[in-house]
């Protein structure tokens, strides 16, 4: 099993409800280490670039509005198979389909306001981490 890194966002619905610590407790209990973290106001340009793969989807405009509607916490998580491990901790995109104990089952409000993001591949994790962190901000 390889130690790898993934990129995480605690989304505005969760920061609004003061759930940053509660999300982090679940992440840490799952054995993932938070090796970088900062609270930011994502700009429209950042959100459009970050979710660029969804540009043609009907929910793109709403998604960008949501991601810029309040503070987010961007993070780098490290651990064994961190990409897949964190996707499991997050649960399904739609909280109605998310398994018991997952972040989205515990905290998400809707398919859009679903509390957390996690990279879907190791390649995308590298790209997403580089979008928000410089190397010296990540301390493993
Ligand atoms: P994420 O990228 O945020 O980790 O979520 P994901 O892989 O589970 O889901 P994805 O298909 O990549 O969708 C990205 C985000 O767009 C919002 N969404 N809204 N209204 C809708 O039907 C809809 N579908 C997706 C969610 O915030 C989702 O996490
Ligand atoms: Mg995704």
What distinguishing features does this structure have?
140 residues; alpha+beta; Alpha-Beta Plaits; four-stranded antiparallel beta sheet; 4 strands; 39% helix; 20% strand; binds ribavirin triphosphate; binds magnesium ion
Question: In angstroms, what is the radius of gyration?
Answer: 14 Å
Q: Which superfamily, in CATH terms, is the homologous superfamily?
A: Nucleoside diphosphate kinase-like domain
| SSE-based structural type | alpha+beta
Distance between the termini: 17 Å
Annotation, overall tally of beta strands: 4
CATH-assigned fold name: Alpha-Beta Plaits
Q: Enumerate the strands of the largest sheet in spatial order, edge to edge or round the barrel.
A: 2-3-1-4
Explain this structure.
- InterPro entries: NDK-like_dom, NDK-like_dom_sf, Nucleoside_diP_kinase.
- GO terms for molecular function: ATP binding; metal ion binding; nucleoside diphosphate kinase activity.
- One of its GO terms (cellular component) is cytoplasm.
- The active site is at residue 117.
- Keywords: ATP-binding, Cytoplasm, Kinase, Magnesium, Metal-binding, Nucleotide metabolism, Nucleotide-binding, Phosphoprotein, Transferase.
- The two termini are 17 Å apart.
- The chain has helices spanning 12-16, 20-29, 44-50, 60-67, 82-90, 103-107, 122-132, and strands spanning 3-10, 33-40, 72-80, 116-118.
- The protein has a single domain, classed as Alpha-Beta Plaits, CATH 3.30.70.141.
- It contains seven helices and four strands, in the order βααβααβααβα.
- A four-stranded antiparallel beta sheet has the order 2-3-1-4, with helices on both faces.
- The model has no long low-confidence stretch (mean pLDDT 98).
- Helix content is 39%, strand content 20%.
- By secondary structure, it is an alpha+beta fold.
- It binds ribavirin triphosphate and magnesium ion.
